[in-house]
Amino acid sequence: MAVVALLGLITPGTLDGNAAPFPLNVLEQIAFNTLVVLLFVLVLMHFVAHGGRRRARRGAREDTAGDRPYPGLDAFQENEAAVYFGREEETAQVVHRLLRPAAEPAERFVAVVGASGSGKSSLIRAGVLPRVRAGRWTVPPPVVPGDDPFAALASSLAPALGEAPDPVARRLRGGAEEFAATLARYRRASGPWAGRVLLVVDQLEETVTRGRERDREYFLECVAEALRRDRKLHVLAALRAEFLSDMRRADRTGLFAQPVLLTELQRARLFDVVKRPADAAGFRFAPGLVDRIVADTRRGDAVPLLVHLLRELHSRARERDYADLRDYAALGGVGGAAVRQADLAAARLREAVGTRDVLRTLLLFAGDTAGGAGAADGADARTVAARSLDRRQRRVVDAFVSARLLVSDSGGGEATVRVAHDALVHAWAPLRQEIAAHRERRRVRAELEHRRAEWERGGRGLDRLLTGERLRLAQEWLPRLREAGEATPELAAFVGASQRRDEEIRRRMAEGIRRFAERAAESRADSPVLLPLAALSGFPLRPAERRALVTVLALHHARFALGRRGEAVRSLAWSPDGRLIATATRDGAARVWDAETGALKRALGEEGGAASRVLWTPDPARLIVASQDGALRLWNVETGEPTPLRAEAAGVVHRAPWTPRGDRLAEVPRRRGLHLGGPPAAGRLPTRLRDTPTTPEEWRNRLMVRGAQHRRPRHPAATTPHHRAAAPPSSPERPRAAV
């Protein structure tokens, strides 16, 4: 009939001015009316058919909405589009990117990037895919890469190709050209009316966390080549934000140049997340309950926990289709959902990691409000750099990210982890008890982290490093923080830089004080004495610096100097009456000085001699000088005349105490033995008593002798009236000598 009507319209009424044949006149008269009727019928049939499909889809969605308006912690699926709300703007943005003409192949690759738990998978599956399918797009099942992205893609394409997944996977791995050819074959196998193909890759970060870098680069290379060869191919991928830099390093074709960033859901949209799915399912909330739920959610990071709570609330009040404050309170609110999830996550980790490591890891996320408005116990949630976590800590964090209790994101260009809801820190009893037990450590760590952050923000300036008491506190606590696994590399670097700076300051100050002290010693000035005192009490000094400062302190109290500056004194002795000072210097000379004026009284011997020790007799006019060759000489200080006391070389004298009456000399060579000398005036030679190593000690009216190998004096020998000492019997274990 349509053909007849069209022929009637296009056939001219006359060919050469004569009347048309009768059949053609009839056809021309009825053609227009027939065509109008046909068009009306076709339009009516289209609307009837399309309305039937819409009613079928609406019925399916209503069944889904009534059965499960809230999916819980799982992502929204395509058949749950009727209850998916809150991301309308982002959904429209992604659909627009897919539909707009693309000048470059990379523009047909759309990456949805956001933090963990931000709703990337839900946006793609429940937001974008239902709209795309309505436009004759062919969409294979979404791909999750796992360990092998090629095998995962093959499993998605194989049913339409009529093949087993393994041969399809081998062809996909066969090179970029074979990869593109396989996708083109899939499009043709989808039917003669198949339009554009949308390849969905969910959780693309698994090519980083579970796959090898070489496979990741090869997979992206193959995708880019397929996009270049097939203008009807589009790719939509979901990626966690902290892995965007990894993908960009592996991508050489600019696939990730213009991602769609999925930010935290704003508070105003949380009302849609709570109320609109309930309206679609015919479920009602008590007045004020929606406001209470949104207020308790606090921020968009906790949307997975919020939807999980709403699912529990719907299940509890489903028979009544009405939830009130008592139902909400019985579940503990959003915080209660977080606590139950934490219990489940900790139970799963208990055997693999242990409760202690779980709590120590989560303690990293409990900071300190430092006097701010925080929880009652002072704890507040903090963000942790992912690179500061070791392998065991990473395992705990991944488990709590999967439980939607922690959020992994990319802040400032680096991967970070933060708490999804403060209830994990404030309400979960095991972690709360751990926080209370380590409150002081948390406070110190928070203070150090605050100082470190200021140092970083200030460009790591020297003026922002720790000094004084703060540095001492950091040095004390850093080993404890390391032991607890809470000392991040950044914190350790900050404390180390502070310590090095402090040591440098101290070194420069000590060096300056040393030089100042040397100049003060030359000028004999009194004013700088406080500087050496401060240096000795507050700075670690090297031996040369300490000697210089001690010299200044000594000179500050000195009345005069004996001899030349820099001349080493080997031995010094005061005369019995305190009027004279005898010295033996390194030049080998012995000298006698006036103790009152410091004037040289007498030079005994010549420079270049062998004087090593000076010993006054009880008579202040007589002085014994011991030489390096072991000889002893008795000098008359008034006349300068020497008298030899010993001819044999028994060794350098180590010590030579006198008997109380002054008529005997117990002279001890450095090598060994004990020699008893007669009255000085008689010039009697010493008598060797023993060769055992000994060290005589003077103690009141007795001469105490001890063996050289003993640390304490032993075997005191009582002095007789004639000053002959009586000693107890000797033994091989305790050799001794007596006078």
TrEMBL record:
GO molecular function annotation: ATP binding
Record keywords: ATP-binding, Membrane, Nucleotide-binding, Repeat, Transmembrane, Transmembrane helix, WD repeat
SUPFAM superfamilies: DPP6 N-terminal domain-like (SSF82171), P-loop containing nucleoside triphosphate hydrolases (SSF52540)
WD repeats: 562-603, 604-645
Transmembrane segments annotated in the record for this chain: 29-49
Protein biosynthesis keyword on record: no
SMART domains: WD40 (SM00320)
Residue ranges, compositional bias (Basic residues): 708-725
Xref: Pfam families: nSTAND1, WD40
Protein name (Swiss-Prot/TrEMBL): Energy-coupling factor transporter ATP-binding protein EcfA2
Organism: Streptomonospora nanhaiensis
